[in-house]
Design brief:
The protein is of the alpha+beta class. Helix content is 20%, strand content 31%.
């Protein structure tokens, strides 16, 4: 097995540097760079979908480019989109809790 060097992660690290310059005022994401996918920079948002949408719009990604799924037995919504940016593959992922069903009203004891 060949070990990668830090230089082998150049594409996502350069992309991160450019994102920092071009979009410094946007909400900060959780970031991930990995030797498993050395061309990938992951930006994830775990506190709702608003920050995900801000980044999607800033990067010019069409709403149709976003995939939707649910996980954790339907208790979490996940939005995901990918694009090429500065020689790296950029993956945006947004997580949000699925809203609880409206509470049922109890009419017990209610009279006309």
């Amino acid at each position: 097995m060949t070990l990668l060097s830090l230089a082998d992660l150049g594409a996502p690290l350069i992309a991160l540097r450019l994102l920092r310059t071009d979009f410094a005022d946007l909400p900060a994401p959780c970031l991930s760079v990995s030797t498993i996918y050395p061309d990938l920079l992951e930006l994830s948002f775990h506190d709702g979908l608003a920050a995900f949408e801000v980044w999607r719009e800033a990067l010019g990604l069409a709403p149709e480019a976003v995939s939707y799924r649910e996980h954790s037995a339907g208790t979490a919504r996940v939005l995901q989109a990918e694009c090429d940016y500065a020689g790296a593959r950029l993956q945006l992922t947004g997580y949000a809790k699925t809203p609880a069903p409206d509470a049922l009203c109890s009419w017990e004891g209610a009279g006309p």
